Amino acid sequence: MLLLSLSACGFGRPDVPVTATLSSGIGKTPLQTPTSAQAMLSAGESSPLPTPTPDITVQEKPTPHVTPTYQPLEIVPELEEGKGAIRGRLTWDLGKEKLVPATHNTIYLGKVLFDDKGEPWLFSFDVENYPKTKTDGGGRFVFSNLEPDTYTLYYTMEGFSEFLLEKPDEDKFMIEVKTGETVDMDDFVALFPSF
Question: Which label site among 23, 140, 163, 183 has the fewest CB atoms less than 10 Å from its CB?
Fold first, then answer.
């Protein structure tokens, strides 16, 4: 048995090529350059023993596509006396009848101002002073303890400005909040803005 010790090798240094010859008196047998593990063993450090490689056959099976489903949890806002609330779920329309929750988007509450004839005149909101909320992981949101009034909603997409939520079948979207009531918007589809 030959014990090979390399004093030039050390932790963090490159392996030094070495050729050793074992002489049995009958002939000379060249040995291979030791690996880092062999050099560590001769220096008194431990190294894992070689593990036999088992004969394994890998058989790929296609993973079935599972479409995630959404079970809405009902958000029940607690209302102060004389107040109302708006709740719902905001989704994105990805086309081909595929809706996904609009998660972690900011929604602002805007006010609808009316002219002297009672017609909607202006949809307004102020990012600094008007109420806002974020949708949760399921796209759900709630505005609670609102004064009875007519409101509208604006949403933001990261990297874009604020956009007024609109229903495809209406010119502008208005929500009338009454005392003691919660307006349930269910699944509300936000369309990607077109420029």
Answer: 23
The answer to whether position 156 is within a domain reads yes
Q: How many domains does the chain have?
A: 2
Assigned domain for 72 exists: no
User: 88 and 33: one domain?
Assistant: no
Helix (H) or strand (E) holding 189: strand 182-190
C-alpha to C-alpha distance for 113 and 101, rounded to whole angstroms: 30
Q: Give the 3-state secondary structure of 101-145.
A: ECCCCEEEEEEEEECCCCCEEEEECCCCCCCEEECCCCCEEEEEE
Domain-embedded: residue 169: yes
Note whether residue 125 is domain-resident: yes
Helix (H) or strand (E) holding 19: none
In this prediction the pTM is: 0.55
CA dist 70 and 94 (Å) reads 16
Can you list the residues of the chain whose pLDDT is less than 70?
1-76, 157-172, 191-195
Name the strand (E) or helix (H) holding 39.
Answer: helix 36-42
Q: Give the count of beta carbons closer than 10 Å to the beta carbon of residue 75.
A: 17
